Amino acid sequence: MKLEYTKILEEELLPALGCTEPIAVAYAAALARRVLGKMPDRVEIFVSGNILKNVKSVIVPNTGGLKGVAAAAMAGAVAGDPCRKLEVLSSLTEEDRAHIAQCMKQVPVSVKKAPSRCVFDIGVKLFAVEDEAFVRIEGRHTNVVEVEKNGECAFSCAEIEEGGEGHELSVAQIAEYASTVPLEEIETVISRQIAYNSAICAEGMRGDYGARVGKILMDAYGNCVHNRAKATAAAGSDARMNGCCLPVVIVSGSGNQGITACMPVCVYAEQLKVPRDKLLRAVALADLITLHLKSGIGRLSAYCGAVSAGVGAGAGVCYLHGGDYEEIAHTVANALAIASGILCDGAKSSCAAKIASAVDAGLLGFEMTRRGSVFSGGDGILEQNVEETIGNVSDVAREGMRSTDEEIIRLMIKNLQ
Fold it and tell me: How many Cα atoms sit within 13 Å of 193 on the Cβ side?
């Protein structure tokens, strides 16, 4: 079990530059350009509604402020490095940005709804004279399932990515793993997460990104550790959603979730002056709780993923305070009772405020637990067993909110028709 959970962390905690949905579009386009072997003179893009929802309003990093599916694809096709995967746009120069802006004016780009019912579906087709190249990504941000040139398979997708989802997790096993895993197994990957995500949160506090949610929280509510934990995570999202070119380490395919699971734990660890090894274990626990909560929901849905990460953060803070399995489980259930149901209406500036709310729920769930107050099984969708509660929340998010997701997408794209 320990090796399996370590492998999950290594697979999931990946560096990414920018919001991961536009970056996935850019990655597909960069791969297609590599296959085509030349600049395209026409571009066709096919995306699922959830991809469009998460790309529509967020700045594509390193592009000079461009937004949207077409901009993400053009950036990838013009200057993306597909070998960098989720950091595909990390090496763009001023010359590249000028070239992207020129191509946006000169190269016809069409954006259409993907024909499949998969909620995570990206197809990019590039044309140049008589040649064409097509790349399709499905299910996860770098999961390439089709690569074609002139209608024929260009090379095996196994050369690009292996592996998949289907993680089997439980709160009890996560708590046991966090307490007993040899530190050398997690130190590198968790330390990178802390370093990357701390840097972008600090930048969010320094700069004036988006709605400045993190800075406003600090100005309005002061420097107590509870508020600092919320504000720090929100500031990272402020920066990330609004063009900051610092990378983050993601969780469950999301930089916002990677920040939210990690940074409140770091803030509390500093306040409590806990040893470094306990911080690393607490962050690993927060990451795995987040992944556990997300595994039954899926990467994209109408359910805001920051909720899962905020619950994970609350569980991590509980661990820092010496919480055992029972206390961690109660923290998870309490937090889910408080915050489940926050809507995901795409990646944008307001994600920072939702992160603050999710962290607040996670921390309140912990504060209730440490004071002996828990929501009981049978209250709403809560069960006596934490795993059954997580299953109920997953069912609501995945199945019950399906029509909600469709309506959100309809409202968001009606002005794009």
Answer: 34
Q: How do residues 105-146 score in pLDDT, each as one tens digit?
A: 999 999 998 988 888 999 999 999 889 999 999 999 999 999
Number of Cβ within 10 Å of residue 76's Cβ equals: 30
Q: Which residues contact 344 (CB under 8 A, 6 or more apart)?
A: 53, 300, 301, 302, 303, 304, 305, 408
* 255 shares its domain with 373: yes
Look at residues 132, 159, 186 and tell me which one is the last residue of a structural domain. 159
Residues 181, 156: Cα–Cα separation, whole Å: 36
pTM above 0.90, yes or no: yes
Domain extent for 104: 17-159
- More confident call, 53 vs 24: 24
Q: Please tell me the distance from the alpha carbon of residue 287 to that of residue 315, in angstroms, as a whole number.
A: 10
Q: How far apart are CA 29 and CA 74, in angstroms?
A: 7
Residue 305: C-alpha distances to residues 210, 310, 367, 387 (Å): 20, 9, 22, 18
**Spatial distance between the Cα atoms of 401 and 152, rounded to a whole number of angstroms:** 38
From CA 21, how far away is CA 8, in angstroms rounded?
21
Mean per-residue pLDDT of the chain: 92
Whether residues 153 and 177 fall in one domain: no
Please state, in angstroms and as integers, the Cα–Cα distance from residue 84 to each residue in 23, 38, 142, 221, following that order: 11, 19, 11, 40
**pLDDT score of 156:** 57
1 inside domain: no
Considering the domain architecture, whether residues 152 and 75 belong to the same structural domain is answered as yes
291-329 per-position pLDDT tens digit:
999 998 888 888 989 999 999 999 999 999 999 999 999
Q: What is the SS3 assignment for 96-148?
A: HHHHHHHHHHHCCEEEEECCCCCCCEEEEEEEECCEEEEEEEECCCCCEEEEE
Question: What is the C-alpha end-to-end distance of the chain, expressed in Å?
Answer: 49
More confident residue, 258 or 56: 258
Tell me how far apart the alpha carbons of residues 109 and 258 are, in angstroms, rounded to a whole number: 32
Domain-located, residue 385: yes
Mean pLDDT to the nearest integer, 385-404:
91
Secondary structure element (H or E) that encloses residue 153, with its range:
strand 152-153
How many domains does one find in the chain?
Answer: 2
